[in-house]
Amino acid sequence: MARVVRFHRHGGPEVLRIEDVEVPPPGPGDVRIRVKALGLNRAEASMRKGTYIETPTLPSGLGLEAAGIVEAIGDGVDGFAPGDAVSIIPPRSMPRWPAYGELVTFPAELVVKHPPSLGFEAAAATWMQYLTAYGALVDIARLGRGEPVVITAASSSVGLAAIQIANSVGAVPIAVTRTSAKKEALLAAGASHVVASEEEDLEAGLKEIAPAGVRVVLDAVGGPIFTPLTAAMSRGGILLEYGGLSPEPTPFPLLEVLAKTLTLRGYLVHEITGDPERLEAAKRFILDGLASGALKPVIARTFPFERIVEAHRFLESGEQFGKIVVTV
Ligand SMILES: NC(=O)c1ccc[n+]([C@@H]2O[C@H](COP(=O)([O-])OP(=O)(O)OC[C@H]3O[C@@H](n4cnc5c(N)ncnc54)[C@H](OP(=O)(O)O)[C@@H]3O)[C@@H](O)[C@H]2O)c1
């Protein structure tokens, strides 16, 4: 038996329960992991609430990121052995491969041997944020040296990963955060500039920083800031929309899109994780960055497994600066 987190109905953090379940031995191609740490993602709160892009059958487990020790391997698995320190590439389906548990099973192709010196908490905070930011900025937008890039929800785990990745390729990260409360922390975390979108004129602020316009925008917010964001973009620019944090409707900035032939593009990390070649390049980039110190996961707060409900409350508070980690 192992303790796992499940929910029997959609709702607030209080619907999460810790339950004992039987964990079958790993099937062919699978790896069973004794979890040491979990990384939390906004997607998990959305699935718990019933507003995610995937609808689970209830009761359902959840979770997209974990790190731990290999306990057993299924038939046909090469390259892993019991005792290896490993972490998980976020699976395409959360209910199919839920990560919130003491013992979890994942297909071997989603399991990575991370450098043990990274530690389980940082390893659990690595793959979602860096794969998401790398896929958008490097794989798709081909962000280059000296280029300004606008990063919204800058204090989210993906936002901070994007700042580090932008710096690692020599680009100029412009952080957009709601208020000035996290401004100093964002500068210390590597942002070249910070604009507080609820306190300043976002369009004017961005145009002052990048008078020639910004080619690449990485946005997790949507809603009314689409207007100033697109107004500050350069001709031929690309806005990668990967979130939807704003509860307000998102306007379509027709004239800006037309006049500057902008690309407004939806983006899911699955584009990278679902393509073995692109995933391999992404893993190399991230492992190299971790080894050189250019990439270093920022952990906002750590909660014990028993306080998963409180961890979800903090996740949705918007107060965090980086990744929320749960130790198991
Ligand atoms: N498409 C994909 O494949 C993919 C992959 C990973 C994550 N995501 C999405 O990326 C976003 C960030 O995820 P995460 O798990 O790293 O972070 P998170 O913890 O959900 O993000 C928290 C940050 O988002 C900002 N924020 C919170 N509520 C907001 C609101 N109502 N309006 C505007 N900003 C708000 C705040 O930043 P400031 O205080 O700095 O404003 C806050 O610190 C989420 O929307 C998530 O669903 C998408």
Give an overview of the whole structure.
It contains eleven helices and 16 strands. Helix 3 crosses helix 4 (157-168) and helix 3 (127-140) packs across helix 10 (276-292). It has helices at residues 42-49, 120-124, 127-140, 157-168, 183-188, 202-209, 226-231, 254-259, 270-273, 276-292, 308-315, and strands at 2-7, 16-21, 30-39, 60-61, 65-73, 85-88, 103-107, 111-113, 148-151, 172-177, 193-196, 214-219, 233-241, 263-266, 299-304, 323-327. It has two domains: 2-126 and 297-327, Medium-chain alcohol dehydrogenases, catalytic domain (Quinone Oxidoreductase, Chain A, domain 1), CATH 3.90.180.10; 129-270, 3-Layer(aba) Sandwich (Rossmann fold), CATH 3.40.50. The chain starts with a strand and ends with a strand. The chain is 29% helix and 27% strand. It is globular. It is α/β, with parallel strands linked by helices. The longest helix is centred in the last third of the chain and has 17 residues, at 276-292. Strands 3, 5, 6, 7, 8, 15 and 16 form a seven-stranded mixed sheet that branches. Bound molecules: NADP nicotinamide-adenine-dinucleotide phosphate. NADP nicotinamide-adenine-dinucleotide phosphate (NAP) binds next to helix 1, helix 3 and helix 4. NADP nicotinamide-adenine-dinucleotide phosphate binds at residues 41-43, 128-129, 132, 153-158, 177-178, 182, 220-221, 242-246, 267-269, 315, 318, 320. This is NADPH:quinone reductase.
